[in-house]
User: Fold these one by one.
Assistant:
Number 1:
Amino acid sequence: MSQPPSHSSGPQLAVRLAAFEGRPAVVGGVGKDPVNEPMIRHWCEALGDSSPAYAGPEAVAPATMLQVWTMGGLSGHSSRSEAYEELLALLDGAGCTSVVATDCEQEYLRPLRPGDRVTFDSFVESVSGPKTTKLGTGYFVTTRMDVRVDGEPVGTHRFRILKYAPAHAPKATHTSAAATRPRPVVNRDNAGFWDGVGRRQLLIQRCLECRTLRFPWLPGCNACGSGDWDTVEASGDGTVFSYVVMHHPPFPAFDPPYAVGLIELAEGVRIISNVIGVPYDKVRIGMPVRLEFVRYEDGQPELPVFRGDLPGEVGG
Ligand code: ZN
């Protein structure tokens, strides 16, 4: 049914992982904001839930918002425990470098109301043995968070992740050699850009009013609102500002894993594109890249992509 990732130490690893069960994952967590009406309203609007229970002077928060009040936002939580960091590092070290959230379960002990201030602790409830899934072989880690208000339990939130070693050939079922790549969507706002690409030019819009460059193409200037613009041609030099490596989900006509870069052009604007000429796992932030145009399929337009240079390699 299952096999440990090839680069882990099998039974020994299982023993080390099991030792994390019962250890803290988050200690002394405090909700960033009290339970509040604006967040309840945004949640209800996003989910299309117009129940009167969630509005007015007697409003309660939707029970399923339990986790929301514990979330760290963009700046994250500083309350993650050393034990949990160690557990993740151990799994990373065993080759299980990818992670996917699989499911959660919640129990509600009493409704939360605007003004309630939550505190929470979480611990590692279980670490599974090695499991092989379509994504790859890895370990399910379940944490259980207890949420309180004024020290009184109000609910629990169980959260399960799979830390896994990505299986490298996920193409069997979804990707067929016959699949074609989606064509670029050309519309009135970006037609000039694609015209430029057809001439092997990467054109950046420039506001005629305030001279601000913008990319991707938009009808108006974000800096001053002017709708008057012309274009400048990118020199083609850039650097990798950020990137992701696509493994999942498989998408017809694409062959994962591959690197998708956020390229900062020498002119200062950024474009999302493929990074070519460098193995997907060798792409790095700050890597210099150079514009090229590539036609991936007959009958498709050429696309602007960026060729990277591995540091230390001469020529190319
Ligand atoms: Zn402007």
Number 2:
Amino acid sequence: MSIVSKPKSDPSSGSSNTKHPHAPARLDLRAAIGGGIFEYAPAPESVRPEIRDKYGLFIGGEFVDPESGGFFPTINPATEDTLSMVGEASASDVDRAVRAAREALPAWAGLSGKDRGKHLYRIARRMQERARELAVLETLDGGKPIKESRDLDIPLAAAHFFYHAGWADKLRFALPGRDPKPIGVCGQIIPWNFPLLMLSWKIAPALACGNTVVLKPAETTSLTALRFAQICQEVGLPRGVVNIITGAGETGRAIVEHTDIDKVAFTGSTSVGKAIAKAVAPTQKKLTLELGGKGANIIFEDASLDQAIEGIIEGIYFNQGHVCCAGSRLFVQESILDRVVDKLTDRMSTLRVGDPMDKNTDVGAINSKEQLATIEQYLATGEDEGAMRHDVCQSTLPGKGFWCKPCFYTGVQPSHTIAREEIFGPVLAVLSFRTPEEAISRANNSPYGLAAGVWTDKGSKIFDVAKRLDAGIVWLNSYNKFDPTSPFGGYKESGFGREGGRHGLMAYCK
Ligand code: NDP
């Protein structure tokens, strides 16, 4: 059943019977937004970066056509317009890229850490200089709101290069008691949810430690990786140190199976991660996997509720919910469940869904038609299994493109599909608990172990709960905060290995 919640009185705001006769009438937020009182004027991003009609593969420092001559379109998911044609790399193209990376390895690994650091600083500064262009490209190609790509993806991507530039000549201090050496040629495969940021998480530590790389972006979001390849040219990075090859899953498989790759680093779905683990198991290759998640965001009755509501929104509706560490399972202490649902309904009615290039947009387009179909299937399953869907978002969706209004479900049982599987969309499952013990056991009842959030006023409760959660990342009175100094990674079916911080460097050193 799909419902729109009715406004309830908030016990904390006092009864209307006791209101002062001259007090101003309380604004009904939902009615105000529905009636258009708070409608913003459009604020479109005006920059239009140059996008070539066609991009080859970036191998050995230059763009070359794929040997098969095949190209595929990359589209804007908000308009369904084709943005460019991108090369489809075959196994022989992968081989060319691996050979270029192998040739470049001795000179790159032989550079002093200080000189490698200089190259990384140059890349970071160039990314900052071109930040607006990169943000627009990311939004056009992936569908995320411009304010997110502008304020999070691109600054954080540059920050990863700055951070790792700093470590390049200090690896012995980062990993005390060792004599760190590069692993060699790294094959890196990244997903479509944070294209340039995931590229930075992978390339920056690899280069800082003296490795060379062959990286494949996701099929639907290749443009910022290709612009990054141009940045490598612009800053004079030695040829072959970074190779970017585009293509679909088969291209990724060819990287994993190539016999001259020393390490595979993968971020993506658990099912592909498992297949990669099987392929790599009989070889000498090193492997790190950053896979899916079903994060638990736990709200205790003593939490600061207005802050927690912002944390819930940030946790699940940021980046259309295409976030592996999303707080997609909300656990609320039973005594405050009604208040949280009511406040969440109010807050969600203010979310603006629509044109990702508008600076006021909160939730952009779903990344692809396929992902939208997956999300819609989960929405139907949620209702079939008896949960109650709350559609409270008031935006009118554009006529073209791939869109899903943010929503949440109540009446969810831990056994429901929407409480167990990664939806990777703006869909929240709300569950309740009575005691901290119950919160912990319900949160840990998942095959995943990537991220969690805990909201409470009590410091001792925070530390007690946080250390008992099976999650690689636990945010305390916050959610989805990222920093290059902080290691990121999971347990259980969320993968192994860490990216970021000193721990992330270990994954790229012998
Ligand atoms: P995939 O795991 O299929 O894709 C991730 C990357 O791996 C892409 O670059 C993809 O290429 C590549 N790839 C696909 N198949 C293979 C293979 N056999 N060998 C090597 N590389 C391969 O994720 P999807 O894009 O299909 O998304 C499906 C689901 O995965 C989502 O609904 C979500 O639940 C989850 N997901 C989780 C992410 C995370 O950050 N943990 C990120 C993305 C997805 P290509 O894109 O060209 O197919």
Number 3:
Amino acid sequence: MSEENTQQFEKIMSLMKRKGFIFQSSDIYGGLSAIYDYGPLGVLLKNNIQNEWWKAMVQKRDDIVGLDAAILMHPMVWKASGHVDSFSDPLVDCKKCNLRHRVDHILTNKGIDADDKMQLEELESLIKENNIVCPECGGELTKPRSFNLMLKTYLGPVESDENIVYLRPETAQGIYVNFKNVLNTYRVKIPFGIAQVGKAFRNEITTKQFIFRTREFTQMEMQYFVHPSQADDVYEEWKERRLRWFLDLGIREDRLRFKQHAKLAHYAKDAYDIEYEFPFGWKEVEGLHNRGDFDLSQHIKYSNKDLQYLDPETGEKYIPYIIETSIGLDRTILTFICNAYEEVEGGRTQTTESSKEVEYVLHLHPRIAPVKAAVLPLVKKEEKLLGIARDIASNLREDYITMYDDSGSIGRRYRRQDEIGTPFCITVDFDSLKDNTVTIRDRDTMKQDRIKITEIKDYLKDKIS
Ligand code: ATP
């Protein structure tokens, strides 16, 4: 990462903490590594992004239904899925400073083509051929070995091997094991999808990039069940649709790209990532996989249950293929924040009292912005203005998260809202007393429209939707 990008990323992280979006977990005890909490604004942003996903994936479709499976599942699920045996990352230890690293990350950071699906021997050769040493202290590295990423705990009063359960490392398995339940109880026919949002846990080793890679995170996954002959076409459609979702919510096109996996995971027939160009480089935000019939076949084998689909029209019985779209909510939040972040040296208007200061603006899409509108009485002394402003704010709260702010100069108040991405600031001034109008300032253009108080809601509705 260049010096400039490192600095920019540090400023983004600091803005997130300063403004109450994201805090380190258990902060007062020194924090828990790679675990984060969402503050008052963070939780609003998180819920908005999740709602947008749910709306696009479930609400607007008649072929996808929702599910909320438990985090803890029968341990056989993870045997069948392959996670117990092969959900691992290749690691090396530094013999000098004892720090542990992901081999594939060390290699790719050096510009060497490598990934976590490579054989340990292959990775070892790459380390030798390229004289790779510890990136922290230059010490010699151990041979690579596999490290399982699942977090374990015990269910019940006895801490024995029979009572081991795993905190799920992905939400997808909850969908596969409920495939028949949904099919038998809900009027769905193939092709159809099941979507769910929920927590997942991975004991990640490389965790330096804030909420990009955490040990507890939220996934939004959709598994689409299709006839094998349709799988390739449906996969292409989902790739197109998922990319559109980001673009429609304002992610810059030049910072998004598809990347096909060179090496496939054990379950995949084809795999693409949607990558975003973060300040620390191009990284995966969402994974799209054609999983073939791997998952249902495995669960048929391990559970001895018939999970085949019987086509009511043709009478054909088959194991459906699964097209998966899997996106991390936390990583998506970081994507939206990085995409929205602007830093204006010397201030945006150059005429305010702050013209020497740096100003920060989050150009979040109005639909995902945490606060939709702020109501600002021009002066604090005039009780009548405050009354009107408070009334407007309380009326707007029926429909939108709204802030009321009467402290400090109007310029400072605009900047406060710009920093947290509020798209509209409504100012109540002396004209408001005469003609029941207000001004509405657009965060991005800083243009102001004068409209009637009674028209505010329609105005916002129009702009936000
Ligand atoms: P990576 O290669 O970055 O570890 P992955 O390929 O293991 O990711 P998947 O298993 O495909 O990721 O998970 C799907 C999505 O879940 C990812 O695209 C990402 O958005 C999210 N995700 C995975 N692991 C994490 C994590 N540790 N923290 C936050 N989000 C994650």
Number 4:
Amino acid sequence: MCGIIGYIGDKTASDILISGLSHLEYRGYDSSGVALMNNEEVNVFKASGKLINLIEILKTKQNICAKSKIGIGHIRWATHGLPTTQNAHPHTCNCKNLTLVHNGIIENYQELKKELEKQGAVFASQTDTEVAAHLIAYEYGKTKNLLNAMQNAAKKIKGAFAFCAIHKEEPDRIVVAKRNAPLIIGVGQGENFIASDIPAIIEYTKKAIYLSDYQIGVITKDSIEIYDEKNTLIPNKIEYLPFEAVAISKMGYKHFMLKEIHEQSDVVRNVLAGKLLSADKKVVLDEFKLTKKEIKNIKRIQIIACGTSYHAGLIGKYVLEKFAKIPVDVEASSEYIYRDTIADKNTLAIGISQSGETADTITAIKQIKQDNSHVVIITNRADSTMARLADSLLPVSAGIEVSVAATKSYMAQLISLYLLAIYLYEQKEVEQYKKEIATLKQELLELPSKIEAIVENTSNIQRIAKKYSSYKDFIFIARGINYPNALEGALKLKEISYINATGYSAGELKHGPIAMLDNNMPVLAILNTGSVYDKVLSNCEEAKARQAKLIGVTNYIEEKDASLFDDIITIPLGSETIGPAINIVVLQLLAYYIAEYLGKDVDQPRNLAKSVTVE
Ligand code: F6R
């Protein structure tokens, strides 16, 4: 989704802006632009499409670049208006003195636009951001002060924003504002930075101030002033950024997605470290803040998440209900927020999010917090908005995930949910399943080596990927605890290869989807040993009887049944409960190799964004 970068110091601003934007590219975007300021002028350069188009323009403007030591930059993910150069940020006003980049959505932009038009504003784009630029410029006309103009404008704007503005009449500063969209100020020596996300500036500084909602900042090369909602200057709270620049490198892999799939064994080790020491020791989860007594009072668990994180939540339901013996509802955040929901202090709310910035999930969390439910956040970003809303924060520490398609963060979420289920089981002192819990713990400890066995031998998966890459449709089926992986496997395939893939619970096939089966429809079945093995096998028979091409992802198959399948991917043995954490690796690799074979932009699929910060 959109990304912001700003620089003020003694270096060539364009170099830092382009480097910052290149580290935000992974978020998904469709145009880019920069505004470069020196003591005499502000120059704006914009391009639709990839960042390279903007870089090519800047190569022809070396004189301007060399003398501009202040600048703001942006990558845009279109919301209002097509992804054209005209709609790309930065935006300016009639006199071109004020220049603005913006993340978020201005809800009352139509109203504001009408008012501004009456004052003579002429608009060059369809964006809500240009309305904000005109509004701040209008306020500047009254106050002759960029800080005051921003303060006045922010009061009139409804919606979400992270703003970064410069003005020709104040060539020594950048003014920023934030409401419901992330913004950080990177602290340097004789230079300062602004960014919507850490990767943009981590190369330059490890110190930053996280702006809070309704705060406004004035940044010069030697100073940072933050004002609160009442326009009072507040003390700066400097924090250390959690990432290393090296984490944003492909480390020799062709794509970040492949690197991140390979990292999953280490991710599992990291999530388990200090929490699960051996199969005969209790899980340690100090981050979970409820007492034993409060845990025993939990009547219901409500999981809220979107996309891949939602699929992790669906698997969480199986293990939490089974072991913790608490009923679990899982709902997509975008649905949760438009219902009269029921929750109370005996409801445990679990928000799951890779980015911790997904707008719908943040709103849902705020909604359930009002019902006095204890909120657990499972996230890969301990520095995120959601993390700050948590009563209990379970950071999964999978390392920064650059590829838009979530892989290692999903794995980390699954492991966290397994640990949480075991922890609740142990705190509630449920006696049933003692043996299964011990097996699950042992399997969690052995999981990294099983993942390694899969990623180190992908020739069969690559062969099958090539064979099926020309199909236009795909169906994924599974049952029980693996059903959510049918959804997740299909999601992975469609988002990076654009093949129309759908996941079904295998038992549902005959209630409608079976009508679509013929020899042009590959069906991938997850066939794990356990309670539904035979059921899935008969669903496969039904599919084969309609001449569907059948791919089995299985940890066990008898020779007599193997002939049913056109292709088989064998995975390491494991119990039914641990199954999803093993077979998902195959589904991720299959999607990756199909997309790679088709020559798709694997890490930055079209129309998608890594962090969905708008509703
Ligand atoms: C798919 C994917 C998305 C995200 C969804 C929620 O690969 O990444 O479906 O899972 O947008 O994002 P988070 O987890 O950041 O809340």
